[in-house]
Amino acid sequence: xxxxxxxxxxxxxxxxxxxxxxxxxxxxxxxxxxxxxxxxxxxxxxxxxxxxxxxxxxxxxxxxxxxxxxxxxxxxxxxxxxxxxxxxxxxxxxxxxxxxxxxxxxxxxxxxxxxxxxxxxxxxxxxxxxxxxxxxxxxxxxxxxxxxxxxxxxxxxxxxxxxxxxxxxxxxxxxxxxxxxxxxx
Length: 185
Fold this sequence. Notes:
Layout (H helix, E strand, L loop, with lengths): L2 E10 L2 E10 L10 E7 L6 E4 L1 H9 L3 E2 L1 H10 L1 H13 L4 H89 L1
Parallel strand pairs: 1-5
Antiparallel strand pairs: 1-2, 2-3, 3-4
Helix pairs in contact: 1-3, 3-4
């Protein structure tokens, strides 16, 4: 029986996540599997990978063949590197302590790269948010300025209309006063 380490699709349409499973190669993609060893969610940035490292390594050592995507995931998490180092120990190239030391060095550099990417993404998101806020402040200032100009224009029109009405009233009062004076004599 050929055993594969592969992905089993779950989730809704256009928003899939995957279980990393060990299954018979003849079984359907989402069908029966021997063991579930992890999950993979490509919808997050960076992708979220939960993997039982020891089970994956034991299945690889027992001869399970990963698919291309699973091989990339296992490489990303360091399972393939660990398997490679253990093969070197079996061949006598170096001892177990040296293999652990090399693996820890590789793991620390990998974690540094992942953390740098997360920091870059959060920094880019913060910068984009800040730029968007500044743009919004600028637009709001322009709107407030336009509104203030419009209010000032309306106030000037009202004031001019009030002066015009007051001017007509004073002219009307003067005309009434002029007509009333001759009658008083």
